[in-house]
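<given_protein>
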Amino acid sequence: MRRLPPGDPLLHIRGWDAPEPVRLYWPATSTRKGPVPLIVFSHGLGGSRKGYSYLGEGWLARGTANVPIQHAGSDETLWQGSPLLLLDRLSGAADEREAIERTRDVSFGLDRLLRRDSPVHAAIDRKRIVAAGHSFGANTTLILTGAQVIRDGKPLSFRDPRFTASIVISASPFYGETDLAAVLAAVDVPTLHFTTTEDTIRIPGRYSPAQDRIDAYAAIPTPRKALVVFQGGPHNVFTKRSLRNGWPLNPLVKRATAEVGLTFLDLAHKSDPAPLEDWSETWKPILAAAPTPFQVDPRRWARKRRI
């Protein structure tokens, strides 16, 4: 296992394969009620554990623990060094070998959080562990929850069954795959997808229109899925960047993204569609397509309402 980069943590997880502590957003005792749900987040190509702090802080404020994993090999160090070699660095970081290493990073991080010598292992709700990611990190999330890359006619699977739902923010294409339905056929956990009407990926050697994000959503076979499409906003609107000329949409998209992730998990884990429906009504002015709650067991929902 490759070593993780230094962190500036909220909590030190002993036993991690790095001399430095890692960043973990953990709810204060006063805000916790029972076992704590956990989101493990994977950043996009060239990103870092700090690049989505608005999500970490937003989820934390509502009692959900989360840990952003930084992927050595496809993180912010790609932008360092000679500009003449940037294309080579990006191409090397975006191949299937790095995609596989990323899934191992995430599973390794989860292993350490759940180990008995972790200070939080007993407090994590094993039934509410969620994979999440943006762009290339969204692909990492899909692979962790069932997506299979086909090579030489054989499927490569790196599914981690501990993840019970996923948050897929602006997934990049599975380059080299011609049958997206086959790649995503085994994804069966509840999945929330994000994109925008201007969600185009343009980096050296890579181009992907917003329709690719819609196609990934459509190819997921389970009906337990939902799609959010914001009206406007580029691919990196989901990072913590302020973006030139991004006001007022940029901060609104960030706030809405943090909120809807947890309302979706209320549906996925508690069979409660009301928070997601309320969210769609609240944010209607900036939505091109609102998420539709999938069908839940009405008897289970009725029982919960009586409690």
In short: The chain has nine helices and eleven strands. The chain has a mean pLDDT of 82. Residues 29-306 form a domain with the Rossmann fold fold (CATH 3.40.50.1820). The CA atoms of residues 224 and 294 lie 5 Å apart.
